Amino acid sequence: METGFVKQTIENNIATIEFFHPAHNSLPGNLLAEIRTEILSAGKNPDVILIVLKSKGDRTFCAGASFTELVAIQNKETGKEFFMGFASVINAIRSCGKIVIGRVQGKAVGGGVGLAAACDYCMATKFSSVRLSELAVGIGPFVIGPAVERKLGLSAFSQMALNPTEWQTAKWAKRKGLFTEVFASTKQLDEYLIHFVDKLSKMNPEALRLLKRVFWENTADWNTLLEERAEISGNLILSDFAKNAIQGFLKA
Fold this sequence. Notes:
Layout: E1 5-11, E2 14-20, H1 29-44, E3 50-55, E4 60-62, H2 67-71, H3 76-95, E5 99-104, E6 107-109, H4 111-118, E7 121-125, E8 130-131, H5 145-152, H6 154-161, H7 170-176, E9 181-183, H8 186-200, H9 205-215, H10 222-236, H11 240-251
Parallel strand pairs: 2-3, 3-5, 4-6, 5-7, 6-8, 7-9
Antiparallel strand pairs: 1-2
Helix pairs in contact: 1-3, 3-4, 3-10, 4-5, 5-6
């Protein structure tokens, strides 16, 4: 529990992948690798029709990258490797062949916004404010940018990227297309989620598979694109600006 976990459960042809980390569900490299593995595993499982991605806890969905791991990066290779963690999860969602439903019960920051944006259908609570904080720590939302821009559009992505300290409400995120539904409580969110995935899981699996392909048309270059973006972030994280900014956040 102290270092977090990722677990997958399968029930009624629905694979639920849940992650947790005690630091507000931030994601170090090992958890990102586990999430990727579980998504691809569920994608290959013939008994799975739908995938639900969720986190444990009440008011925070995902705080993004692990700051303690970021501040420890000492070279470009390690930096790129860390950011490839987020790239690999986004590409796993893109390529797994199954519809991925996001359940966002609370705040999402940085990479957490990227995970939500990569989901094919994402629902949230009113507590699910969103923020792209990367520029404030000396980098930028390069790796998750394609997923966020694809879902919200360039204008909304630019607004978030250039306002790294400003929270946007769940209602704003719904208007921009990140969330499909916003509920007053986690209880209401979960009740609707159960209803929605039960209904969707009874649809034609082949039709769902082909819809997934349609949803992700024109993204065949993302393996290369996100790797290039990971290299950009991996270089920037070595700057004095980034190191000092992250240390400041850790001391706050």
